[in-house]
Design a protein that fits this description.
The protein has three helices and four strands, in the order αββββαα. It is of the alpha+beta class. It has a four-stranded antiparallel beta sheet. It is extended, with a radius of gyration of 17 Å. It starts with 7 loop residues before the first helix and ends in a 14-residue tail after the last helix. The relative contact order is 0.10.
């Protein structure tokens, strides 16, 4: 990770593992560089013939990691959000952006 962004090489090293299908739901863990990552489970749902990732469940699982990152950075959720946006877009982000679209 550099400047808060994940490099393509990191994503290329990740693959789904241990896929289990139960009706219209499927669950899978990951392998990272060939090694199992068992503490993160992805849930998928079948919608109109297409498997879709349940992102809400992923975000709930990631909440613990975000809490640790906020604590290490000594930032609130809003401060961390603005910080990550600024690093991503390489420009100052006005705090008003969190109140709705800029005009």
């Amino acid at each position: 990770m550099k400047n808060g962004l994940i490099k393509k090489q990191v994503l290329d090293a990740i693959e789904l593992d241990n896929v289990q299908v139960e009706g219209k739901k499927a669950f899978a863990t990951l392998r990272n560089q060939g090694k199992p990552v068992n503490d993160l489970v992805f849930e998928f749902e079948l919608h109109e013939g297409t498997w879709k990732l349940d992102l809400k469940k992923v975000l709930n699982q990631a909440e613990h990691a975000w809490a640790e990152l906020r604590q290490k950075a000594n930032k609130s959720k809003i401060e961390l959000s603005i910080f990550l946006l600024e690093r991503t877009y390489k420009q100052d982000i006005p705090s008003q952006i969190l109140n709705g679209p800029l005009k």
